[in-house]
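Task 17 of the worksheet. Students: predict the tertiary structure of the chain below and write it out as structure tokens. Keep your answer in the requested format; marks are given for formatting as well as content.
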Amino acid sequence: MRSYQVCVNCVMDTTDSKIVFNEDGICDHCLTFESDIVPYWNPNDVGIKNFNSTVEAIKLAGKGKEFDCIIGMSGGIDSSYLVYLAKEKLGLRPLVFHVDAGWNSQQAVNNIEQIVDRLDLDLYTEVINWEEMKDLQLSFLKSGVPHIDTPQDHAFFATMYRFAAKHGIKHILTGGNYSTECVRNPLEWMYFQSDSTQIKDIQKKFGTRKLKQFPLTNVIWHKIWLPYVRGIKLYRPLDFMPYHKEEATQFLVDNFGYQRYAQKHFESRFTRFYESYWLPEKFGYDTRKVQYSSLILTGQMTREEALDKLKTPAYDPQTIDEDFEYVANKLGVTVDELKAYFNGPNKTFKDYKNQQFLYDFGAKIMRALRLEKGGKR
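Model answer:
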């Protein structure tokens, strides 16, 4: 059995079973950041200058239209700050697009409303069929895989891409960024949420209804057909300018009444439960290690601060029973049933039909063409 080891530079460790350390004890996540991201990443005046031409192209294409781009907004800090940036700093006219999968926290609702209202923007909300969503999430819980947030994540981007394709929208802005996400979740922790083959297989094995309205997509459709045939382009503006998570958060708090979350992705009640308790307690995967390591590499957190935070669990031991009850009631099962899923055998994405081979092949091509840096492994 492999002995425990933690990177001397970040806080990634051997709970990532594929992690590799060099002779100095530095992990491959850090080495990949230095070799594949840093040389091509310009969050400075150079990046802003390079992105300005893109902004002007978006404005030109949107002349005479009600809006010139869409931004998917969850209420989290990255997408929230991007909405402000797009309107006030870049001069764009975005349609704010939100997908309601049934798990919005009150904080998320407040943050979306405050920012959209104060910026005088239009908000379009797509509500996912709850009965199908609930059944699919139960299927993933029963399956024993760690990536039980896949139904929610899949619904988010599939719905936005469908909307863009249906309405002829060519420009999508996303809050994805290297500044807070340069370290990627290992594949065993969070499998590709766009793999519809796996979703269908798990639903077929454990579900009780057919997915008639749930927005299913596939990697070929959104990675090849939409961008290269339909001309729908996805942009990550935060990669082209300085982006400091704490400074951005405080700015939104001061100017938009933004409410902070305890952790990244906690705008969803389900994701909060899943990332703070289910994933670390059932599988030993603590996503804070990925998030903190990203902040360490981009100079926003010290390794000592991260190690200190990791000494305490991400969930509140005083309220975890209430969280179990909330999630169970929402999904229409008893707390005992939910705990039975938790105590069931652990599985991986490899235990079900999947398209990993396709993702691996595509990743090699994308990296060879320098269209993608880093990635899951």
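Marker's comment: The beta strands are 69-72, 94-100, 123-127, 171-173, 233-235. The longest helix spans residues 45-61.
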